[in-house]
Amino acid sequence: YTEAWDADKTSIHVMPDTPAILLAKANAANISNKLYVQAWEEAKKKGYDMRADAIPIQSAKASRDIASDYKYKLTHEKEKGHYVGCKTAQEDPKLALAARAMMLQNDRLYKKAYNDSKTQIHLPVDMLAVQAAKECQTLVSDIDYRQYFHQWTCLPDQNDVIHARQAYDLQSDNVYKADLEWLRGIGWLTEGSVDVVKAKKAQELLNERLYRTRPEQLKFTSITDTPDVVRAKINAAQISDV
């Protein structure tokens, strides 16, 4: 079945200038790493000549001088001690500017005017804002909000008050146990008390000896000619190996 195909595979010839072959070669050249770095490798083989007065070298030196802290402070170091024409520090513009900046940054001087003026404020007692603040204070005050129980708002001989007192006396634990005060300190025996009797009854219910009756204590005589006994004897004789 495949003999003809195997014979034809060795005789097929593709022309090298077909579009598919050309496209494959172009793709191989595009993705080839060797061709990608070929120009760079050839340039490295030729070498390079970088002179000291080249533009990139001059630009790098200028950038380094600008970024250098020494060059940045060189002018300031040279100008130290050469200030002339100012008799006092207040006449020097730079020192005056520094003093002004220090005063602006000083927190005490910044709040001095406020601290001096906050104690000189006078408000009339009948001012609308003051009256509103007083009313708000009265509303949120805990003292005015609460009314304690000892401050009676009704007469003590009213029917509601009398009925409430009677209900309190009925619910009071002291009044409820007042009739047992005469028993306090009197000795008594626990035998015959409710808890002791309850414990004895529970022990009798849980006692295994009293709950069960042993078979040897039962008075029972078996009848030998009952159908069950006769059948049992016949079955025993049938299954007996002897």
Automatic annotation (TrEMBL):
Any one of the GO BP annotations: cardiac muscle thin filament assembly
Give the GO cellular component terms, alphabetically. Z disc
InterPro entries found in the cross-reference section: NEBU/NEBL, Nebulin-like, Nebulin_repeat
Q: Which UniProt keywords apply?
A: Actin-binding, Repeat
Provide an example Pfam family for this protein: Nebulin
SMART domains reported for this sequence:
NEBU
Molecular function terms, GO-annotated: actin filament binding
The answer, when asked if Repeat is one of the entry's keywords, is: yes
Per its UniProt entry, which superkingdom is the organism in? Answer: Eukaryota
Name of this chain's protein = NEBU protein
Q: What is the lineage of its organism?
A: Eukaryota, Metazoa, Chordata, Craniata, Vertebrata
The gene from which this protein is expressed is Neb_8
